[in-house]
Amino acid sequence: MGATLQTLDGILKNQYLAPLREQVNNDVVVLDLLDKDQDSVVGKNFTIPLHVGGNEGFASVAEGGILPTAGSQQYKECIVPQRYIYSTIEITGPTIKATKSDAGAFIRAVDSEMKGAAKDFKRQLNRMFWGDGTGILSVCGTTTTATTVNVASTKYIRVGMTVDILTSATGAVVANGVAVLSVPSSTTFTVASAVSTASTDAVYIHGSRNIEVMGLQGICSATLPIQTLDPATYAFWKANVLANGGTPRAITEALMQTAMDTTETNSDGSTKAILTSFGVRRAYQSLLTNTRQYMNTMDLKGGKKALDYNGLSLIADKDAPTGKVFFLDTDYLKVYQLSDIDWMQEDGAILSRVAGKDAYGATLYRYLELGCSARNAQTVLADITEA
């Protein structure tokens, strides 16, 4: 049976969309851990009432004394904005022509593109959920009029990316919309035209500065303003940061317990999940081995495993920042979304002509943001030596 563009639209929607959603939601650690809220949207944003104080209309009174003045629970509203994530695939006209007589051939032709789209969505969302919302891929080093750019790390920089090099504090342009030609080392990448950079500059995906999804490093901060509230003004809006002045120290059970105790001391919450890097996980495994303790593991969804710490899962992730352990109360963290992953089709079609090319494009999108309703219930243990 011949396959029209409408039929091909149906294949993209029915054959790929549900598995893509499931794969991304299960494989991105933050999406897997947290609830999703699609109901409390107001306009394009989500408004959260934060419980910031109890009813202080309480006192012990002598016989015949005056009763305490009535009080009430204290609340402060904050706003979780939406962030808009897109991934576009392109299918050439000849490919569509060659497969129009066979829907199965179309599936085979676009399968690699769809697998790539799923991989890219997972990779970028996972990276963002570990970030701080700024979109920084790497901080620059000193580069003096050269096509080889020095950076702290090329972990998130790949060949073919279009990136901006900007002054991180102001957004002033050093290089705008340049292609990454090669990544010859863990601290360098190359571009076509010579640039000069300083340690005050950073690399971003083109056009993405300060509009990426908020991540755990941003939420677990005592200084960064998020969700329209500044912790410098509202002390309750500070996460607990247990650092060592930049000097690495060995992981110990006492440090980990201190982090959990700090959450309970400073909030009404308690740690529900522990997230860290592979290197810190190895250091913790070495600690257990050296102290002759049995290493318990816990089974997670999707066949994954985590180490056990006091009955909690200690989950390691490849995109987690080095030298840090995050003690999260997931009851106060949520993914607020206007939409799960879907195809853009408001004009009635998923596949649309690409202007000036013999090709058709399709765009996946997701509108979401990571939000927090009790920042003081989140604790990060920093400056930990990796193994």
Automatic annotation (TrEMBL):
Domain of life of the organism encoding this protein: Bacteria
Q: Quote the InterPro entries the UniProt record gives.
A: AKO59007-like, SU10_MCP
Q: Name one Pfam family in it.
A: SU10_MCP
- NCBIfam families hit by this protein: capsid_maj_Podo
Protein name, as recorded = 2,3-dihydro-2,3-dihydroxybenzoate dehydrogenase
Organism of origin:
Desulfitobacterium metallireducens DSM 15288
- Print the organism lineage: Bacteria, Bacillati, Bacillota, Clostridia, Eubacteriales
